[in-house]
Amino acid sequence: MTGFIFYVISGLLSLLVFAIIASAILSWLVAFNVINIRHPVASGVVRFLDAVTRPVLAPFQRFIPSLGGVDISPIVAILVIQAARQYLLPWLFAPLFRIVG
User: Do 7 and 89 touch, CB atoms closer than 8 A?
Assistant: First the structure.
């Protein structure tokens, strides 16, 4: 059971990284008028990705200033999420793996 929970949390963190990357790419495509956000499907995708990534990116955007109009907070957020997934998550689950197996 512990392995299952570990696998689900690790997978959710990986999906969050992909959502941040997709949101960053989509923001550039919208900025350069490649994608029209007046289209209902495009608008729905943009709103969904914004709703998923905004709570994660907002704390980073408060502390990291934009550099010449370029927001580097997604890069820092991805680094923190990957570090948590690879180092912090196994460390937190190690006692449970020893107890439950």
Answer: no
Q: What is the pTM of this model?
A: 0.90
State both tokens at 97: 């793996």
Is residue 95 exposed (0-12), middle (13-18) or buried (19+ Cβ within 10 Å)?
exposed
DSSP state of 86: I
What Rg value do the Cα atoms of the chain yield, rounded? 17
42-85: per-residue pLDDT in tens?
999 999 999 999 999 999 999 998 888 888 999 999 999 999 99
The position carrying tokens 């890069």 is: 75
- Provide the residue ranges of all domains of the chain, joining segments of one domain with +: 2-100
C-alpha 37 chain-centroid distance: 22
Residue pair 46/25 in contact (Cβ under 8 Å)? The answer is no
C-alpha neighbours within 13 Å on the C-beta side of residue 43 = 4
Q: What is the DSSP letter of 48?
A: H
